[in-house]
Design a protein that fits this description.
2 copies of one chain form a homodimer. Chain A is α+β, with helices and mostly antiparallel strands. The first copy, chain A, is about 55% helix and about 15% strand. Among the domains of chain A are: about 10-155, Acyl-CoA dehydrogenase/oxidase, N-terminal domain (Butyryl-Coa Dehydrogenase, subunit A, domain 1); about 160-280, Butyryl-CoA Dehydrogenase, subunit A, domain 2; about 455-605, no CATH class. The first copy, chain A, has helices at about 10-20, 35-55, 55-60, 75-85, 105-120, 120-140, 140-155, 285-320, 340-375, 380-415, 425-430, 440-455, 460-475, 480-505, 510-515, 520-550, 555-565, 565-600, 600-605; strands at about 65, 70, 155-160, 180, 185-195, 205-215, 225-230, 235, 240-245, 245-250, 265-270, 275-280, 325, 330-335. The longest helix of chain A is centred in the middle third of the chain and has 37 residues, at about 285-320. The N and C termini of chain A lie far apart (about 55 Å).
């Protein structure tokens, strides 16, 4: 039976052999999450994803309906939403005090990979609810937490994020939604928000909107923005629902994809009846928002990855089953399955390399969260949170860029069928295109990397990151089967380190725009190097295990074992994937680093008029 | 007023300054197509495209309906179809004897750029009609031509191409549709075809299907395939319509995009009543098909290009109008239009470079057709047809790959709006994804380049192609403003020439699959080099004109002129675009050529099982 959504063997490989997730159980905090429990959780998540969520993916593509101010989600979402909540999957990693499971993040990511890969539209409702609840947990008063938190983590009430306005997209500081303080300490909110995922829907009895707004008289720009908690229905002190809170959905977007998730326009206080409470401190809304942004951006990266792994599983299964044309090496033979054709293999291997590199990268980021939460010292915690700072734009920006490539290869491998709705790959490609845009466009991720992360702690944070990569290169050099790969990767590593210095210096000179015109190519290059890191790490784990299975490193013995033993072929797949990526993809990265090094200023120096039109 | 679909100044530049289209009027054949006439044709085409065709693009995205075996195209197509036919636009380049305009191909491409950019779905009906008519013109008997040709070129009857079957997609030789000869010399056709664009529609009174089928007893594979002309309604000797010919549409595909064009499944002879006539010779169907394939593939490249130029015009206009965030170089200033942001400029310049390179490449291919048709000797004709052979996989494969990138940048520049149906870019991206697949997937284009074109005429054809590039490099070296660019490009040229030899040799060795695993990267690299060729050529034309306008090459004088004079800024835009592409994009190509040179065999040597799943 072919795997769906994700390759369970690879999920287990990353969890146990690469990230050693069960080791976390040595801590008091995660003591109950031993290997057996981890495996049970993943199995349960996988079952739920495949049996319940996946069947809603295609019907969900029919979209939400907007009728008389109400948003009706795809009918099939209702049942699975209930099942998902009964399983208490929303608050896997959260504090048991508020109904969470207290699970290590790295484990939750394996579960979420299956969930998001099964239906990204459906899961987006959950991600946003989780993000909103986390805001309440982090910044809420005791009263706010008591009123909202358990119901949100239980999925009874959903959550959103009201940030974007028509004239304030990426430039959040330009927003105009206003808050006027009332005598009782609450605020009357007035304004319009757009692009609100799940801003209105019919699966829950209440929707809790964290809203960015400006208190009357507050400073201009981002320094005058505060965060408010605005429920769709007011909440009485006993937790029961009061009257409608004047949050009106005025329409939903028609989009390229992600049709099952309603993208709403909301008007707050159109009748002057929208009441919110301050969440956190006055004028500190942006910093609260940014605290959550890391989680949100990592979620978007996860979405891109999950859709990619689903596309890879589909394309791989199809390539094994679809019979078409003869083998190039056997032109007189009969037609063969298309996985025999070199260009199909090339595409599958690109997909595999990215998907597996993404999986390791995402789980690694989760592991950093977990280790930060267990850190014995401030320095140790700072080390892991620093890594997360650098990882975030890569996880969000690089993964979602590559997700489009991976899903597009998925379409291509299906040929003409891939373009039709008969097969799932075209939907995956349409769904994932938004991930490059929301929670900060990938251009903004690139600016974040260059402008904030490169110079953070006087460059120490970034050097720490490079140090982790360097360690892996050194380790792989000691292993005969990976030594050559490590050497090839090292050239790109060195070039990237030089380029980072050059780029950072330029960004602080009067040629600042020259540097920023290469911010995205630099993000892409660092992402490539990070993929190579993850894949080399995998290969370095696989090599000795393969040698052990084969009783040594004799090539003939290894070949025989690989052909006859499933575990051996899995480990060999790790070595081949690293080999492919480092030898056939990284040279392209080196070329791109050369282009950055040239730092030609055409894009900056060209006059607007010279663009034509 | 912003330009729509295409930048008219650039269209004129390529037609007149780069391709010197009016020079063709020195020949008897094209004597009437002087500069004034060319400009009139382009203006008329542009007006038709913008005023009549473009308004059908968005409503056309609602799709065709399939009701009771009938296909209803979007209602708005009917009127514009009539107008298009009244303008006699279908047969621009064809023989006046059959109703054609006898126009040089290079001019028709400018018109078609506007048409296809205005609505690719609508125009696909026309392209296929033209291709089918051309088959009749080339292979038809006098009787067939008299019966069908004028009506087809006039758009009264449409045409299709019945090639693909469920088990015979890329492997055409596996098809099973059969033809049984009748006593009167006609054939009874039986079979099922899928993915037939415009296979059924309600804009015309008859549809003429060229059908690939196997005559009973014919050899297996491609050598036993014949071509037949199968009308939807039989045609009486006087040209009037007879009875229904048992060509039944059984359904249309639900697709990612191109919704206005019906993709049909057809059953032929389900009731034994489908009659066709042989087109060309028995068992020579494939070679007839391949003759037309070059035109069809060039049309697909044109489609990809046309959608790209439309996306660029939209994104450029939006970037100039959309105000968001401050200028990086003026952090205390007010918000500026997003064209000031380096990452937006980078994306716009990528779009511009590809779009303008594509335009030159496509018009150049048209010019080669024209010059081949005027050739004074066999050798001269062979030179131009040889160039076309090499150009075809680049036009089809490279342009359509890059069209997806260009349209995706278009979506990105619009931010969240780009993902919504409120703006046209998301449709352009969805529409263009199929171009990478149909008329031979881009993987097949890459195989065509490596397997057929590289070794054609013992390599002379390909060397001829490289020779044309070399000439341009040498010429640009003589011009001070382009000499350095030419030098930078030369490095990539030399590396590509070496790689081609290496790849060609490997393809003929027992490592054939190693070579084919790099066929697509090689196509991409040759495409990049070809873009650079076109852009350097443009720059070499622009440089002296800019110097002339500025009264010399003094940088300050040029800068002043560029800032104050529209023509000067256009020419400067040519130089900057070449500079950007050669200095910031071609280094990536060099990296890819390095990867090909490595020729790592991971993709070939990996076992199927090691792909996982």
């Amino acid at each position: 039976m072919a795997q769906l959504i994700a390759d369970r063997r690879d999920v287990d490989f990353v969890l146990h052999e690469q990230m050693e997730a069960a080791e976390l159980a040595k801590s008091d905090k995660f003591a109950e999450f031993d290997k057996k429990t981890i495996d049970l959780i993943v199995t349960e998540a996988r079952n739920l994803a495949i049996k319940e969520i996946l069947p809603t993916q295609k019907p969900g593509d029919e979209g939400c309906r907007f009728e008389n101010g109400q948003v009706l989600v795809p009918e099939c979402f209702h049942k699975v939403f209930k099942v998902y909540n009964e399983g208490e999957w929303l608050a896997m990693t959260d504090d048991p005090e508020w109904g969470g499971q207290g699970m290590p993040k790295v484990i939750s990511l394996a579960a979420n990979e299956y969930f998001h890969g099964a239906n990204a539209s459906f899961m987006l409702y959950q991600s946003l609810s989780h993000g909103a609840a986390k805001l309440v947990e982090t910044y809420g008063t005791k009263e706010q937490k008591n009123l909202y938190l358990k119901k949100m983590y239980a999925g009874k009430w959903s959550g959103t994020m009201l940030l974007t306005e028509p004239e304030a997209g990426s430039d959040v500081g330009a927003l105009t939604t206003s808050a006027k303080k009332n005598a009782d300490g609450t605020y009357s909110i007035t304004g319009s928000k757009i692009f609100i995922s799940g801003g209105e829907q019919d699966m829950v009895e209440n929707i809790i909107h964290p809203v960015l707004a400006r208190i009357e008289g507050a400073p201009e720009g981002t320094r005058g923005i505060s965060l408010f908690l605005v429920p769709k229905y007011r909440v009485k002190p006993d937790g029961s629902l009061g009257e409608f809170n004047d949050v009106v959905c005025t329409g939903i977007e028609e989009k390229m994809g992600l049709h099952g998730n309603a993208t709403c326009s909301l008007t707050l206080g159109g009748k002057g009846q929208c009441i919110g409470t301050l969440l956190g401190e006055e004028n500190k809304g942006m910093s609260a928002m940014f605290t959550m942004m890391n989680e949100a951006r990592q979620f978007v990266g996860l979405e891109g990855f999950a859709v990619s792994t689903a596309a890879y599983m589909h394309a791989l299964n199809y390539a094994r089953e679809r019979i078409q044309s003869r083998d190039l090496a056997d032109p007189k033979g009969g037609p063969v399955s298309i996985i025999h054709h070199p260009d199909v293999r090339r595409q599958l291997l690109i997909m595999k390399a990215y998907v597996e590199g993404m999986r390791s990268l995402i789980y690694y980021t989760g592991r950093c969260w977990d280790l930060a939460s267990l850190a014995a010292s401030d320095a140790e915690r700072a080390h892991y949170t620093g890594l997360i700072e650098v990882l975030t734009p890569i996880v969000k920006g690089y993964i979602t860029d590559k997700a489009l490539e991976v899903t597009s290869h998925g379409v291509q491998i299906y040929g003409g069928y891939g373009y039709t709705k008969e097969y799932p790959v075209e939907q995956l490609m349409r769904d994932c295109r938004i991930f490059m845009i929301y929670e900060g466009t990938n251009g903004i991720q690139a600016m974040d990397l260059l402008g904030r992360k490169l110079g953070m702690n006087k460059g120490k944070t970034f050097l720490d990151y490079l140090g982790e990569i360097r360690k892996q290169i050194d380790a792989a050099k000691e292993i005969p089967m990976t030594a050559a790969l490590a050497g090839n990767m090292e050239k790109v590593f060195n070039r990237l380190a030089e380029t980072a210095i050059q780029l950072g210096k330029t960004a602080m000179s009067d040629k600042v725009k020259f540097a920023y015109a290469f911010a995205h190519p630099f993000l892409e290059s660092l992402g490539d190097l990070t993929m190579a890191w993850m894949l080399l790490w995998r290969a370095a784990i696989a090599a000795p295990k393969l040698a052990k299975l084969a009783g040594g490193t004799d090539p003939a013995a290894i070949k025989a074992k690989v052909e006859s033993n499933k575990e051996a072929s899995f480990y060999d797949g790790q070595l081949q994937t690293a080999r492919f990526f480092i030898n056939s993809m990284l040279p392209i990265t080196l070329g791109r680093l050369e282009a950055i090094h040239n730092m030609d200023g055409a894009a900056v120096e060209m006059l607007d008029a010279a663009f034509g039109g």
